[in-house]
Amino acid sequence: MKLVAKNLTLAYQTGKNIIDGIDFEIEDHTLVSLLGPSGSGKSTILNMIAGLLTPTSGEIYFADRAVTKLSVAERNIGMVFQNYALYPNMTVRDNIAFPLKIAKIAKNERKQEIERLAKLVHIEDQLDKRPGELSGGQQQRVAIARALARKPAVLLLDEPLSNLDAKLRTEMRVEIARIQQATGVTTIFVTHDQNEAMHISDKIMLLSDGVIQQYAAPNDLYDKPANLFTAKFIGDPQINTFDKAEALAYLQNYFAKQVKTIGIRPDAISTIKNSSSVELPVTLKSYSKYGPEQLSRFDFFGAEFDGENVDGISEVEVGQPLKVYVPASAIHGFDDSDRHVLALKPDLQDLTSSIKS
Ligand SMILES: Nc1ncnc2c1ncn2[C@@H]1O[C@H](COP(=O)(O)OP(=O)(O)O)[C@@H](O)[C@H]1O
Ligand SMILES: [Mg+2]
Question: Does the beta carbon of 35 sit less than 6 angstroms from any atom of ligand 1?
Fold first, then answer.
């Protein structure tokens, strides 16, 4: 089911808008992440969609139906929270059965539905256990099964993986994507972890201070950040930024209008020149390798920046000057308001030679 928010605003009595008049559409059958730092308004948006919080103004639609004034029960949503919120004294079977009993589903049909859901989330062997006997990952599987029991119009997941260790988090994010695809249920997944959001989402809504910074496909946030906040929040290691003196002046030459900050992602740095690349004269400051991950640090007119998996860099000695190359499309300019500037000069090869002469 498609979900639409129009001019959605939430303020508490004391003052400023926690959610500040946002508009968005979430397409049917997709998985969208609400991503942002702690306090950016992710849970507030989710709770307004669920009906747990009433917006100060604005509207929410499930398909064409305005739900803004409907209760939680009238909206038919499935919800999973960070703490599993399972009934500890009930078996897994009874936990999943609970919403079906409330809905007065007949016993026979209930039994079939429990089996279908248990298979879907891979806990068919655990049905007679109690939540306390399960691992954190298994408990979240049960919580997801229970949330899906009533075939919800939308599945809402608020940081469901935050209590799990790193390995289980990775396993469970793959599982959530699989379950979402298997059921086709429109899903909203809240996380503060950009890596998690990048892996799991059809689209990411990046939030800061109750405002949408960018709402796009994961690779678009990475490759075409709309502003400096997005450029910095997405990507690890973080994007290199240049905002001072000579380094900025050198890079500024590639732009047709004045920019305040220039950003270049560490993985865009290469020792290999190609037709669209821009040349940077640098000195290798340091080099390290941990398993498959190789990081290098460069001095560039007194500004330092990182390179990630720079091909050929292991052949270079620390302290040695060299030239590195960046595709022109990977040089991001930002204006005084930190908005992305689309004003790279067209002929970068000519420019490179004019800078050198
Ligand atoms: N009951 C409340 N009264 C006043 N402010 C609140 C209340 N609940 C949450 N907030 C504020 O709303 C902002 C957004 O909170 P929240 O949506 O929980 O953020 P997130 O889920 O992104 O961490 C925070 O600044 C938080 O302090
Ligand atoms: Mg939250």
Answer: no
For the full predicted model, state whether its pTM sits above 0.85: yes
Q: Where are the alpha helices (DSSP H) in 121-206?
A: 136-148, 166-183, 194-200
Q: Is residue 207 packed enough to be buried (19+ CB in 10 Å), middle (13-18) or exposed (0-12)?
A: buried
pLDDT tens readout for residues 10-51: 999 878 999 999 999 999 999 999 999 999 999 999 999 999
What domains, with CATH codes, occur in the chain?
Answer: 3-232 (3.40.50.300), 239-356 (2.40.50.140)
The number of C-alpha atoms within 13 Å of 165 and in the hemisphere containing its C-beta is 2
Q: Which atom of ligand 1 is nearest to the CA of 207?
A: 22
Sheet holding 340-341, edge to edge: 240-242, 261-264, 331-334, 340-341
Helix (H/G/I), strand (E/B), else coil: 276: coil
Which atom, in ligand 1's list, is nearest to the CA of 41?
A: 17
Residue 234 CB less than 6 A away from ligand 1: no
CA dist 203 and 85 (Å) reads 27
